[in-house]
Amino acid sequence: MTSQALPRPAGGLSRRIVDRRTGLFGFVGSVGLHLLVLGLLLVRWPQTESPIAEPEPMAVEFLVERAEPAPARPEKPQPPPQSTPQDLEIQATSTPGRIPVPQSKPGPPAKAAPARPRIEAVPRSKPRPPTRFDPEHVAALLDKARKQPSAPAPRTEGADRDEKKPAQNDQDAAAEALRERIAKASLGQALAARVSRCWTAPVGAKGVETMQVRIAVQLSREGRLIGLPRFLDVDSRRLKTDPYYRVFVESARRAVLACAPYDDLPQPLYRLWRQIEFTFSPRNMY
């Protein structure tokens, strides 16, 4: 049994032809539409861009420096022409009876401003070295005082010249007491000078150079201290309130103790320096 091909309908071919034409026209139309859109974009694109702002022109001024003219040199005044004797004679004859014009008196000279005083820094004086104790000098002063004659007492008529009057005795005693006071004062100054060599200035104490204190000591014949030194004129209120003054008094006490024994004092004058007072002050050392 053989199969036979069925005949295809005639309408199928025409349908395929129509489909091909339709696809071709669609392709051409799509391409044309894209080209049209692209052309419109190319034509309108430059219009959408914002214009670039051009810079405003700036005004520029040119400054020209001119050289200043050099200052004109002052012309030297020409000396006046020297007049001859003939010209003087003609001038004297041509102007007779000329009245001299009185010259104005010069005013008083202006007073100069007073110069300001110049302030100069005064250098601080260096500490003076303490005087050295010299017992021979003190003894010489005592001998000189003893050798000076005392003024004689007035004598009354009828009195015996060899008889010593009570007034003369009183005068001699007063002169001897004066000599002893002078000798004791000299010994006190010498003792203060000796103590100043053993004194050390307190560190940081203000106004020490203006302070002073009166000290009394009792010494043996060998010059050793009997007991502690005593202060006679110490301000007790200041001693409590002023720490610098308290430090100064303590430093003076240490100096008196450090210098002992005072074995260079003259032995013949022991009755004068057995109990002695002196004023200690570092004022002379500044």
State the total count of DSSP E strands: 3
> Oligomerization state of this entry?
single chain
End-to-end separation in angstroms reads 163 Å
Rg (C-alpha, Å): 66 Å
Can you tell me the residue ranges where pLDDT is under 50 for at least 5 consecutive residues? 92-97, 117-127, 149-154
Kindly name the structural category: mainly alpha
Largest sheet: 3 strands, antiparallel
Q: Report strand order across the widest sheet.
A: 2-1-3
Any idea what the shape is?
elongated
List keywords for this structure.
286 residues; mainly alpha; Fusion Protein Consisting Of Minor Coat Protein, Glycine Rich Linker, Tola, And A His Tag, Chain: A, Domain 2; 3-stranded antiparallel sheet; 42% helix
Lay out the secondary structure.
Layout: H1 11-48, H2 85-94, H3 135-147, H4 166-197, E1 213-218, E2 230-231, H5 236-241, H6 243-259, H7 270-273, E3 275-280
Antiparallel strand pairs: 1-2, 1-3
Helix pairs in contact: 3-4, 4-6
